[in-house]
Amino acid sequence: MVSQKKSVNLIFISLVILVIGGAFLIASLWSEMKQKETAFEAVSAIESIKTELQLLKTANTNFETAEKEFISIKEEFEVIKEQLTKINTEYAKQIDVENLDKRIKELEEKNKIFSNENFLKLNALYQLRFAISSEKAYTVELNILKKLDSEETAFETLEQTQEGLPTITALTEEFKNIQQQMNNEKKEKGIKGVWVKIKNLIRIQKINTDSSDTSTPAIMQRIEKNLTENNLNKVVVELETLKTTDTETFTFFEAWNTKINQRQNTLKTLDELTQKYLKNIKD
Fold this sequence. Notes:
Elements: H1 2-114, H2 117-133, H3 139-148, H4 155-159, H5 168-188, H6 194-202, H7 216-228, H8 232-245, H9 247-282
Helix pairs in contact: 2-3, 2-9, 5-9, 7-8, 8-9
């Protein structure tokens, strides 16, 4: 009985030892498996790191290459920039020289014009015209022009009005005074001439002022109208008509007619001289 119990105990102990040994074996295998798994993960991690390092190395190489290319481009750009600066400087100098040459040529041309004898004559003529337009005597200005152009014969016309060109206002006022003087003289002599009769008719009916009407009153009215319109050329035409149709009346206006003709001839001469001097300058 005692021997049987011992056997049972031995078996139990053996089983316990077997179980414990199996547990240790399983634990050892599990630990080894975990270690292998960890090692595998470590290897995988190392491979991944190697791959990333390789990529970084490649990227770094590419970056270095790009940086070198950028530096090269930058250096080339600086060279080009320097060349452009030189070109711009040279071009600016060239432009300045061209502008200077152009300006010199312009001044030379102006100098030719200003030193031109005809320009001096034209300038003196303008001074003369200014004096005339100022309604004053222009003897001094005329003498200056005569010295510059001593061979010109047209100055004889200008000499006739050198004490002052009669203005249209003055001529109009003189025309009215002559009319009044003519009426007074005819009344004093008791002459009932054409003009006196016409003055009476004017109060009754309107006179025909058509150019075809050569009667004295029609001519007088047209003269008044032309004076108002500052058209002395037509006044001259009307006076020429009056000279042939009514000599008696024209006699009163003869001196006045001379003044008008002198004025018109003076202005015409001034225009002709201006055109002449301008043409000579251009030629």
